[in-house]
From TrEMBL:
It is a multi-pass membrane protein. The gene is sugE. This is Guanidinium exporter. Its main location: membrane. NCBIfam families: PRK11431.1.
Length: 105
């Protein structure tokens, strides 16, 4: 259950990061509320997963899911640039997540 909680925490990180972009510096109410709500849920799930998972593993997986997910949302939703170097960087993050998962007892 800790791993499921951690993945959900990472997904909510993508939600709040995307909503923060749409809030335009917290000047729009609905995206601002989604940002704060997403943060609360994400941090809560991360905290719950850390009851059993090591700190370094949990934090790395959480930030990795958020980073790669936000990268993908930026491309698909916000029309951000795609370049071979940016894709390679995202793939390096994913490979690091896989290695960390395999290295965690």
């Amino acid at each position: 259950m800790a791993w499921i909680s951690l993945v959900l925490a990472g997904l909510f990180e993508i939600v709040w990061a995307s909503a923060m972009k749409q809030s335009h510096g917290f000047s729009k109410v609905l995206p601002s509320v989604v940002t704060i709500g997403g943060m609360i849920v994400s941090f809560g799930l991360l905290s719950w997963s850390m009851r059993t998972l090591p700190l370094g593993t949990a934090y790395m997986i959480w930030t990795g899911i958020g980073a790669v997910g936000a990268f993908a949302v930026g491309i698909m939703v916000f029309g951000e640039a795609v370049s071979p170097m940016r894709v390679a960087a995202a793939l390096l993050i994913v490979s690091g997540l896989v290695v960390m998962k395999l290295a965690t007892p």
